Amino acid sequence: MTRHQAGLGPAGSGPVRTPDAQQGDQRLLRRRVGQADLSAVGDIRRALRELLGPSRHSAAADVAELLTSELVTNALVHTDHGAVVTATVGEAGLRVEVRDFVAALPTPYVPSADDGTHGRGLLLVQALADAWGVHEHGMGKVVWFELGCNGAAPQF
């Protein structure tokens, strides 16, 4: 069983809160977000702030919240399924993964002035994360980012 599969409820069952854990020097957050449940984005942000603990008021924590919100929103808006959000904080920094259940891989694009605020999520991730990527995962994909992994950013 992968860590993405642990703690998931039945498909379409809505939000499932699994207990957050601490494994060694790592702190872990895992949440399932129901299909089209955009109100869950705020819940994920609050849970991430709790996970980050004392550093939750830092500029890096603000970036983490922004990028997590973008990835979760993308997963909910661009798929007809829910998503699984996993955040891990350790000595190497923060890694956030958002798994959805649609195989189509996202690609950043340069939005036009007519797009308003639409289409900038992955561009923000690309610009602000120390590392990011997308990989296929079973029946879907995982979009992830890391902060603090290059040693220059503050520890979480």
UniProtKB/TrEMBL annotation:
Coiled-coil segments: none
Native source species: Streptomyces mauvecolor
InterPro entries linked: Anti-sigma-factor_SerPK, HATPase_C_sf, HATPase_dom
Protein name (database record): ATP-binding protein
Superkingdom: Bacteria
Gene Ontology MF annotations: ATP binding
Source species taxonomy: Bacteria, Bacillati, Actinomycetota, Actinomycetes, Kitasatosporales
Keyword terms of this UniProt record: ATP-binding, Kinase, Nucleotide-binding, Serine/threonine-protein kinase, Transferase
Region (Disordered): 1-26
Domain Histidine kinase/HSP90-like ATPase: 35-145
SUPFAM superfamilies, alphabetized: ATPase domain of HSP90 chaperone/DNA topoisomerase II/histidine kinase
Keyword ATP-binding part of the UniProt annotation: yes
